[in-house]
User: Fold this.
Amino acid sequence: MSVASTNNISVKKKLPDWGTSIFAIMSNMANEYNALNLSQGFPDFNCSDELLSLVQHFQEKGFNQYAPMPGVPVLRNVISDTIKKVYGRSYNPDTEITVTSGATQAIYTAISCIINKGDEAILFDPAYDCYTPDIEANGGIPVRIPLNPDFTYNWNEVRRNISSKTKLMIFNSPHNPAGSLLTKVDIEQLIEIVKDTDILLLSDEVYEFIVFDNEKHESFNLYDELYKRSFIISSFGKTFHTTGWKIGYCAAPVYLMNEFRKLHQFVVFASNTPIQYAYAEYLKDEKNYSLLSEFYQKKKDLFAEMMSDSNFKVLPCMGTYFQLLDYSNISDKNDMDFTEWLTKEIGLATIPLSPFYENGSSSKVIRVCFAKQDDVLIKAAGILSSL
Ligand code: PMP
Ligand code: GLN
Assistant:
């Protein structure tokens, strides 16, 4: 039995195989060694003055007590209107949308609704870090299927891994860390697989508004067969440059949302009130999200252009604000050692890819966050190009 103990007191470990998240490790290392931090995914520039003023306005007006458990009605209404406008899908804001303390809490709550002891959940490697521990904390069994080397899906492998115990499949598009997108062909395959089953879906769409080169984001909202069995999750942290405010939301048909809210009320009860009111005003203006892809496209292109003569190989990036770089022409070190060396000796913090895999990764690839000011991107590309 795996226990943590001191003197005669002990606790059975809930997550015996997990340590501290790679995002916390690399950001701490960046601070300790005073390195440029392109590791953990957050912008190094401020959100808009308008949004800051809105928060201040609602704080001064006295909106400082508990919000209603599922979120303030005006924000749920605007979220519902936005989903309708962007994807054509109707959710009842009273019963089918819940505001959460970040996408992380929404993911934990959705997984906890579905997964009971011994249930299997399918996810894909590389996988965003919280999915597997959330499954394990609920006594579930993560079934991690590797994506192909170019981060496309092997649907035959998916079919082979489905069993009577499969209760959930988790998708993330645009994909962190790969920067890849689910395609229409992928969606068709997925519909074929789930349509006559009772498998539920979690679609993590936090980067829904960051898609490049006129590619299309295939939201699960667009497909009846997917929507009716899905928790669809997003985050205002990504969309409005406010990762530290930790507000996201979950949309799901009422039979799923009823279960979600039962847990949500006992995990957080409600999320930050004045920020919800501020987001509600800000989200009404379409240009506050519709221009985001264009904004990040310039940063992606700037960084890729600066890296084009370097010894790194710049891998395709179709969405998110993460760029993968292959360093196999530069070093034989594994990615954990390489990123540690890069941070401590060269002064630039990035993220290794191994922690996103069940059994680590042998590929020599690192992740760089390009949600940074242009001069920082230019400086970082200069450092990397000297290697
Ligand atoms: N999912 C993915 C794919 C992410 O990259 C992140 C990190 N932003 C989250 C979920 C968590 O979002 P939040 O910060 O709103 O909890
Ligand atoms: N989503 C962010 C990333 O991928 C990190 C969020 C966190 O630190 N949990 O870097």
Residues 41, 102-104, 128, 172, 176, 204, 206, 235, 237-238, 243, 246, 248 surround 4'-deoxy-4'-aminopyridoxal-5'-phosphate (ligand 1) (CB under 6 Å). The chain has 15 helices and 15 strands. The longest strand covers residues 166-172.
